[in-house]
């Protein structure tokens, strides 16, 4: 039987508008459906039909050619063995380039509204409804892209809808985390399974006051979080929104700083996502956001020697977070060295205080047994660790994939 994993609809280039025949204009979309690593394509037992919506972002009106004129024999269909799919989407006749400003959403046809959005609950086995498409077929992450006056910038958007698994969807307030990623291939500039699953977990587990207290080491009135290898920023931005929601609900009154860090190639996308998140933070807390999001470059080869930028040096870090950063065994010594150097910097900041603990939430989807080297390095550097949560990915097939979320700690527990 085919292995089914978590998959992503990925655009191979920005969609193109063709108005050369004004009576039959169309948008042409070239996409693939791959794993996060891009190392294998979706190979489904049953074909996966795709649905595409094309709407004006201001009016919400569709510009698709409506039925019965829309002569499509069947929806675009992904079948086993495909590596890419070329789709021509007919839009209303006589639209000129300058008329076509729209959001294009591509998602599995089985998806229930909201379209183009991945529901975090579908990534968590304990909240999956029986019979839901994710439970039976695995998860395919939708994608959206904006076209302005007939032109697409090569930026796709993933939307993750976070909610609590304890209450019914209709009864709760949800949080949408919007993340831009590059069209095409890149390591730092798109999202990964461990980030998606951990963000969904945090959205669920931190939806109550007890959950926040249990998971986040908020010991003072300021809470400082640093993310290593943040990529597009899925984990840090999710945590920022989750904490802002907790403040709005009166679950905490901490003032929080979340600093995303990565190599320079990640900066542009991370900063755009911070700008998007700042709008959401203001919406969550109309009195003014209490969470500050920042970005700074931090190369672990510098960090391991205690060489940090101005923002990373500015304060002690109560919590360090990272997801999917431990797959490259060669970079593990620099990564663990950076964690230890951050702890040493914390000890200096806290010289006058008894509590010098540093906590780390580390999420990983183990891909290879060699990654176990991480734990030897952590132990040698006096880090204590235990599994906070082990979450199987939603999929069918004989080979389980799992995201492990670890809690690491170093330092004294004197308080
Ligand atoms: C697989 S991505 C994960 C990105 C993000 N954490 C997520 O879950 O979506 C690994 C990240 O580690 C970063 N990285 C790799 N080596 C690094 C280094 N030496 N210093 C800093 N970041 C590094 C990459 O740039 C990339 O963004």
Automatic annotation (TrEMBL):
Signal peptide: none annotated. SUPFAM superfamilies: S-adenosyl-L-methionine-dependent methyltransferases. Coiled coil: none annotated. GO terms for molecular function: S-adenosylmethionine-dependent methyltransferase activity. One of its GO terms (cellular component) is cytosol. This is Uncharacterized protein. The lineage of its organism: Eukaryota, Fungi, Dikarya, Ascomycota, Pezizomycotina.
């Amino acid at each position: 039987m085919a292995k089914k994993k978590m998959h992503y609809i990925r655009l191979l280039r920005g969609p193109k508008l063709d108005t050369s025949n004004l009576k039959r204009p169309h948008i042409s979309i070239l996409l693939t459906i791959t794993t996060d690593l891009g190392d294998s394509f979706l190979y489904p037992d049953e074909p996966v039909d795709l649905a595409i919506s094309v709407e004006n972002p201001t009016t919400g009106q569709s510009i698709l050619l409506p039925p019965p004129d829309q002569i499509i024999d069947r929806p675009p269909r992904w079948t086993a063995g495909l590596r890419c799919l070329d789709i021509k989407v007919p839009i209303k006749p006589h639209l000129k380039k300058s008329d076509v400003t729209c959001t294009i959403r591509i998602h599995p046809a089985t998806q229930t509204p909201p379209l183009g959005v991945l529901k975090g609950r579908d990534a968590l086995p304990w909240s999956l409804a029986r019979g839901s498409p994710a439970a039976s077929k695995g998860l395919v992450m939708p994608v959206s892209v904006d076209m302005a006056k007939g032109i697409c910038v090569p930026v796709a958007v993933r939307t993750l809808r976070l909610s609590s698994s304890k209450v019914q969807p209709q009864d709760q307030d949800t949080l949408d985390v919007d993340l831009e990623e590059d069209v095409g291939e890149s390591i730092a500039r798109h999202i990964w399974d461990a980030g998606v699953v951990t963000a969904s977990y945090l959205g669920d587990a931190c939806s109550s006051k007890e959950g926040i207290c249990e998971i986040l080491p908020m010991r003072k009135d300021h809470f400082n979080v640093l993310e290593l290898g943040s990529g597009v920023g899925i984990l840090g931005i999710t945590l920022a929104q989750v904490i802002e929601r907790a403040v709005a609900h009166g679950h905490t009154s901490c003032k929080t700083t979340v600093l995303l860090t990565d190599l320079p190639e990640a900066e542009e996308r991370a900063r755009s996502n911070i700008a998007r998140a700042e709008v959401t933070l203001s919406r969550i807390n109309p009195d003014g956001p209490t969470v500050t999001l920042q970005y700074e470059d931090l190369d672990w080869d510098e960090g391991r020697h205690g060489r940090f930028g101005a923002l990373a040096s500015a304060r002690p870090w109560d919590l360090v977070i990272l997801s999917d950063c431990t797959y490259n065994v060669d970079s593990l010594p620099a990564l663990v060295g950076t964690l230890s150097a951050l702890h040493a910097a914390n000890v200096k900041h806290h010289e006058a205080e008894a509590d010098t603990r540093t906590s780390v939430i580390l999420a990983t989807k183990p891909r290879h047994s060699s990654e176990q080297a991480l734990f030897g390095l952590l132990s040698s550097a006096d880090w204590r660790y235990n599994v906070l949560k082990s979450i199987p990915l939603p999929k069918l097939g004989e080979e389980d994939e799992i995201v492990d979320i670890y809690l690491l700690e170093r330092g004294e527990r004197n308080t």
